[in-house]
Amino acid sequence: MGRNDRHHRSRFVRHLTRPRASHTWTVTVDNDDLDAPVTPVEANASLPLRALGGGSYAVIVVGTYGRAGASWRDNQPIIGYAGRFTLQGGPLPLVPTNTVRDVTRDGNAVTVTMGEVDSSHAITVARRASPATERGNEPPRYITESLYGHPVLRNALAHVEAGVERLTVRTNSIPDPAMVSGWTFSYAGRTYEAAERD
């Protein structure tokens, strides 16, 4: 899917002490340059978003009951509202970031190198048999859009192809603590375990 010229406006209550007050955010989706890293965004009026495919989403608006004019981060209690919107279009493709500088395959294993030559951390993502779990105890499930916010997992799973069982990502980034001891998740109907490798 190329550039999306879709706009969505939602109205949310801005000050609960003023029941009729409202505020409008404009949400703009642009899928140009999908290989660029995706980072969180904040805005008071226009919210530019990237890496979204067709489907239903929600924008979360954060506020507070605290002091007027103060930052919501330091102003308790914090509250949030969500506005739902729908985009028409095809599914979002999973592409690696432009920080990938080398990809090699050896049998059923793929190694992806991110960043500088002296990449000091290695995260291995390996396929696992789907565990027999009770309803409600299933491993976390990722969708493509959520992987765009996790560069290591994104760069690993973007290189899954027939016969690949294990993917190692070499990076200078400090790994997520959950990956150090082993972390199981699912994506596209398959189960994986991610762990830091010495």
Describe this structure in words.
This protein has 198 residues and is mainly beta. The protein has 2 domains: 7-87, no CATH class; 100-197, no CATH class. Helices cover 8% and strands 40% of the residues. The chain has 3 helices and 12 strands, in the order βββββββββααβαββ. It has helices at residues 144-147, 151-157, 177-180, and strands at residues 7-12, 23-29, 46-49, 55-64, 78-87, 100-106, 109-114, 121-128, 141-142, 166-171, 183-187, 190-197. The strands form 3 sheets. It has a 7-stranded mixed β-sheet. The longest helix is centred in the last third of the chain and has 7 residues, at 151-157. The radius of gyration is 20 Å and the shape is elongated.
Helix content: under 10%
| Residue fraction in strands | 35-45%
The chain-level mean pLDDT equals: 80
Radius of gyration: 20 Å
Write the element-wise H/E pattern from the N-terminal end onward: EEEEEEEEEHHEHEE
- Report low-confidence residues grouped into runs of 5 or more: 1-17
Secondary structure: number of strands = 12
Task: Report the principal-axis shape.
Answer: elongated
Structural class: mainly beta
Strand order of the largest sheet: 6-7-10-8-12-11-9
Return the domain count: 2
The N- and C-terminal alpha carbons lie at a distance of: 39 Å
How does the major sheet shape up? Answer: 7 strands, mixed
Q: How many alpha or pi helices?
A: 3
Which characteristics define this entry?
disordered N terminus, single chain, seven-stranded mixed beta sheet, 198 residues, mainly beta
Give a nutshell description of this structure.
With 198 residues, the protein is mostly beta strands. It has helices at residues 144-147, 151-157, 177-180, and strands at residues 7-12, 23-29, 46-49, 55-64, 78-87, 100-106, 109-114, 121-128, 141-142, 166-171, 183-187, 190-197.
